[in-house]
Task: structure prediction
Amino acid sequence: MERWAASELRYVNLGDARRNKRLIKLVEDLAAQPTSSVPQACGTLAATTAAYDLWSSPYIKAADISHGHSKSTVERAKAEEIVLAIQDTTNMDVTSHPGTKGIGYLDHKKSFGLKVHSTLIASIKGVPLGIIDQQIWVRDIEDLGIAKKRRQRQKQEKESQRWLDGLERTNTLLAKKTKIITVADSEADIFDLFHQERPDNCHLLIRGTHNRRVNHTANYLHEAIRSSAVRGKIEVSVKRNPERPARIAKLTIRYETIEIEVPRNKIGRSQIKPVKLQVILAEEENPPSGITAISWLLLTTLEINSVKDAARCIEWYTYRWLIERYHYTLKSGCRIEELQLETARRLEMALATYSIVAWRLLWLTYEARQNPDICCETVLNTVEWQSLCVTVSKNPIPPKIPPTLRAAVRMIASRAWFSWS
Ligand SMILES: [Mn+2]
Result:
C-alpha cells in the first residue's frame, strides 16, 4: 500500500525535493503518534532536528505546507455533486509560553496566541474531505481593552471579513460544477455575507441569531418566522457535546422566504438592496428534563419547498459539528498549544503541519465508525499498525494478525485525547 502521506501530499512543492520528503515523513510520523512530543514522534534526533529546521526555514511559508493537502481536498471534492464548506474560528492559546514572539491577544488581556479560521470540506454524508483554507491572524493590543465603540466596531468588521474571505477562496478553488454550501454558526450571521455576490453554484446555510428588521407585517425576523404556520415535525439525532448527551430530538418545523432589510447603521445604506433568504425554524417542544430545548434558526439561500427540503438543511447543518471535532483534535489531540516554538511564525508552520494530521485523524475516526470490523490494513500500512500495537501494548512483539479498523483507531484514541463516540 502506498504510504498515505506521500499520496496525500503528492502536490506539495517546497522548492526542493528533500524538503518535500521531509514534510511527508514528518506528517506521517506525527499522524502515527499524534499526542507524543515532536522528538518522540520523530524517533531520532536527526529527524527531530529536521522537523524544527523545516518549521524555521526562511524559504517556505505556512501556506506552502498547507497547499498539498488543500489540492488533494479539491480533488476529493470533485467526486461529489454537493459539498459542505464548513467554516469556524478557534483560538490557539499559548498563554503558558509567554515568551513566544509575535503572538497577539485572544479574547481577554491575559490570554494570548493565534486566531485560526478553518474551512473544512465535507460530503453531504458527513465525510471529512479536507481543509481547503486556513486563515491565521493575531490581534493587536490596541484592539483589546479599549472601550471606545468605534475601535470595537472596526475590529469586529475586520474580523468578520474572514467569513467572506473563506467563502471566496473556497469558491475559487473548488470545481464550478460542484454545488458548494457554506455552513457556519451564528458568528457568521453577517449582513455582508448574505449580501455578497455569489456564483450560482454557491449557497449559504448559516445559523441566525440577530433579530433583524424584515419586510414583513411582524417587522422583526424572530417574530415573523414564529408567526408562520407549522409545516411539519421531524426527528433528528443530536450529537453529544460537553454540555449535553447524544439524543433523538423531535423538532417542529417552520420555514418561510423573508426579505431581510439593510441594517440601519450600514454605510451607503440607500444604495444597498435588501436580501431575500429562506428562514427555517426548528424547535424542540418537549426536551428531556434538565436539557435546554433545541431552537435552531437557519438562514439559507437554498430553495425550501417542503419539510423534506428543510430537514435536509437541518441535517447538513448538524455536520457543522465536524469542524468542532477538527479544531478539538488539532488542539488537544495534537497538543499544538504545548509546542514550545518561540515565534509565531514557527507556530504557524507547525499548525499548518498538524492541520493535515488532524484531518487524517478525523477521517480515520469517520472510516472506523462506518466500517468498524474491516481489517485496519485498508487504511494503515503494516509498519503503522505494528508500531501502534507495540507502543500501546508495551509488548515489543506485534500481533500476527492486524487488528480491526475500530480497534486500531481506538488504540490511537487511547492516547488520552480524542474521544470515541
Ligand atoms: Mn464559532
User: Anything to note?
Assistant: The first helix runs from residue 4 to 8.
